Amino acid sequence: MKRYKAYCFDLDGTVYRGDEGIASAIAFIQKLQQEGIEPFYITNNATKTPEQVQQKLAALGIAAPLQHIYTSALVTATYVEQHFRQMKVQVIGSDGIRVALAEKGIHITNDEDASAVVMGLDREINYAKLASACLAIQNGAKLIGTNGDMKFPTEQGFVPANGSFVHLVATVTETEPLFIGKPSPIMLEAIAQAHHYSKNEMVMIGDNYQTDILCGIRFGCDTIHVNTGVTSTAQVQVQQEQPTCCLSSMAEWA
Length: 254
Fold this sequence. Notes:
Elements: E1 6-9, E2 16-17, E3 20-21, H1 23-34, E4 40-43, H2 50-59, E5 69-71, H3 72-83, E6 88-92, H4 95-103, E7 107-109, E8 116-119, H5 127-138, E9 142-145, E10 151-153, E11 158-160, H6 162-173, E12 178-179, H7 186-195, E13 202-206, H8 209-219, E14 222-226, H9 233-237, E15 245-247
Parallel strand pairs: 1-4, 1-13, 4-5, 6-7, 6-8, 8-9, 9-12, 13-14, 14-15
Antiparallel strand pairs: 2-3, 10-11
Helix pairs in contact: 3-4, 5-6
Family: Belongs to the HAD-like hydrolase superfamily. NagD family.
Cofactor: Mg(2+)
Pfam families: Hydrolase_6, Hydrolase_like
């Protein structure tokens, strides 16, 4: 296998499932660190702050620098700051997106006259929140999703992810949502710019073809699909655009 300077790992389904670590990925990351290579962690999960992601990785035996953790919440907050800085923004989501928006000085409201509705995964989502979001969008608000993932793997099996709720709101309001996270290459572009890597020095590693692998393909770097999460190897092999390599797990990396 080719050697890279920047190994960019997806998290859910690639490094862990729920609170259970994926041993082959953790061992590979630890080996890279022993060789002096510090991986990057790129997640569409907007429920956690970078500090909370860091703590979760630490509990699995991975010491990850904060500046190597990139979440869709951070990228979404930057977009909202650029386009809705002085406006009201309605938010459905958890700590990750709420803290990221607050740190940008965004005016968060529950009002239905908001200029934008930002949706990240909210494990306490209910009918009232969804209804309020629908009304705000019908009043002219822009629908923004931190990511479009339809499901993610847990220890027990697949559960709904943020995209499933965003599409529900989009269907009711007959609008087209804007998704910020993968497969958009924004996070990979940020890594390349901040750390001065060229595309051929980077690799994107992930379990979800529609997000992780397409993100790397659209960015223009190598991609490694692992058969440990959302998309099976068989499902990947029928896609028109193929990853650089398919592995059953990171234990196969020679």
